Amino acid sequence: MSSLKDVVASFKRKKADLRLIDFVNFKFQCQNDVLAIQNVRDEKLARFLQITQQLKQTYATEGTYSEALFELSNEQLKALNRIADGEEAWITDVLQSCARQLLKVGQELDRRAKEESITANKKKKVKGDLEEETFLEKCVRTIHTSFKLCLNDRNPDFQRNKKWGVYYFINIEFKIYQQLGNRDMVRNLVKVIASRVSELPAPEKALRSHRSQLITYLYYLGEHYGCHEGDYRRGFEYLQRAWLGCPANASQMSRQTDKIVALLVPFALLASHWYPDMSALAQYHPRVALLYAPLIKSVLNGDLREFDKWLAANEMFLMRRNLYVATVLIRQLVLLKLIKTTRAGFKDPAASVVPLASFVAAIRYSAKHSHVTHITDDDHDETECLLADLIARGYVRGYLSHANRVIVLSKSNPFPKLVSSPQSQL
Questions:
Q1: How far is CA 276 from the centre of its chain?
Q2: How many other CB atoms sit within 10 Å of the CB of residue 11?
Q3: pLDDT in tens, 102-136
Q4: From which residue to which does the signal peptide run (predicted)?
Q5: In what order do the strands lie in the sheet with 398-401?
Q6: Residue 72 and residue 43: Cα distance in Å, rounded?
Q7: Rounded to two decimals, what is the model's pTM?
Q8: Is 215 within 8 Å of 242 (Cβ atoms)?
């Protein structure tokens, strides 16, 4: 059990040692030395010590997470923020411990409130025209202050600048905004990071000793750019860095790596037309392989019906993971493969002028797996639209002649590859 004198000594030495980290945790008791607090001349520090002792006493008395415990945890972080304003990088570890403790209490209280609301079948309480704040909404304001203290530190000694701790609070805010479903705040946070990137240490350096934090940071950015901004190339780049940073053969990381790879597969397809080695995927990520095996098969075979069946069967999962839009776009790759396969089967596969009727029949058969006996003008028009979209996206080089109902393909390279890579490519 640490003493208040030890804690005060840690602040004087400007060192976030184990005694100080344990002190901020309300589950670890500390000798309640009122005289020691009274002898502290720094009013901010004295206030922080006093609140933390009250926090410990409240938990010891109640033995559970309560609103009183949340309010004291919130006040604890506020008090530490006031101290941190004049301190250097060492304080960020203590700030992080307080912030995560506050978040944990807020999450638990919100979970209980949600369960009680469902059980009682009550509507959310309303104050005037505004819904009552959740505990997460309350705590994120205090945590955001910690983030700003780190981000805006002007200490000229870069090695002692609190900017080294900014990524901890970015991760916490990402997590809170995701749980609240507040995409606007995530977007604003990403914009702030992008605008200040030249002032911040590289995440790989700042989080060198905290691999899980680095992986979390890269995952959130990859998920944001791919799932919500439609920038699949940038999303893939962040997620690839996150995946490469995961420890090999770590069973405790299997769930986290599965989440990363579940995003990597569709982003790689859309960004670069890369698809995974399914045998390797099944060996290291069997759950992800089970999910995507029918998708990859439909892409490789140009099978529209199988793709549509897979999409319908997994619609709810894809929507929950914000992957539905991305996977819908993969249908264009299935169509592209079908067009390439159909052309390769012509008597003259190098012919540049191709009647649309050939592609109309192929698309209708692939979509229904039934023989095509009659082709209408509407079928031609629909096929023209599909081919025009492939041309617009750069998947096909050529142009359409509506009057002649033909597509004129480029003689040199009608189906260009997006990239040159040793990885598997369509």
A1: 21
A2: 20
A3: 999 999 999 999 888 776 665 555 544 446 789 99
A4: none
A5: 353-355, 406-409, 398-401
A6: 18
A7: 0.89
A8: yes
Tokens of 254: 């299997």
CA distance 71 to 64: 14
Count of Cβ atoms closer than 10 Å to residue 324 Cβ: 17
Confidence of residue 45 (pLDDT cuts 50, 70, 90): very high
CA 107 to mean position of chain CA atoms: 19
Q: Could you give the CA distance from residue 60 to residue 78 in angstroms, rounded to a whole number?
A: 22
Q: 8-17: long-range contacts (C-beta < 8 A, 24 or more apart)? A: 8/36, 8/40, 8/45, 8/49, 11/45, 11/83, 14/87, 14/88, 14/90, 14/91, 15/90, 16/90, 16/91, 16/92, 16/93, 16/94
Please provide the distance, in angstroms rounded to a whole number, between the alpha carbons at the two ends of the chain: 62
Residue type for 118, please?
A: I
Among candidates 265, 274, 276, 271, which has minimal Cα distance to 323? 265
Burial of 169 from C-beta contacts in 10 A (0-12 / 13-18 / 19+): buried
Which band of pLDDT confidence, cut at 50, 70 and 90, is reported for residue 282? Answer: very high
How far CA 165 is from CA of 148, 149, 176, 200, 294, in Å, comes to 11, 10, 18, 10, 43
The rounded mean pLDDT for the chain is 90
Q: How would you write the chain as a 3-class SS string? A: CCCHHHHHHHHHHCCCCHHHHHHHCCCCCCCCCHHHHHCCCCHHHHHHHHHHHHHHHHHHHHCCCCHHHHHHHHHHHHHHHHHHCCCCHHHHHHHHHHHHHHHHHHHHHHHHHHHHHHHHCCCCCEECCEECCCHHHHHHHHHHHHHHHHHCCCCCCHHHCHHHHHHHHHHHHHHHHHHHCCHHHHHHHHHHHHHCHHHCCCHHHHCCCCHHHHHHHHHHHHHHHHHHCCCHHHHHHHHHHHHHHCCCCCHHHHHHHHHHHHHHHHHHHHHHCECCCHHHHHHHCHHHHHHHHHHHHHHHHCCHHHHHHHHHHCHHHHHHCCCHHHHHHHHHHHHHHHHHHHHHCCCCCCCCEEEHHHHHHHHHHHHHCCCCCCCCHHHHHHHHHHHHHHHHCCCCCEEEECCCCEEEECCCCCCCCCCCCCCCEC
Q: Cβ(144)–Cβ(173) under 8 Å?
A: yes
| Closest to 297 (Cα-Cα) out of 322, 278, 318, 271 | 278
Sign of the CA dihedral with 106 first, then 108, 110, and 113 last? negative
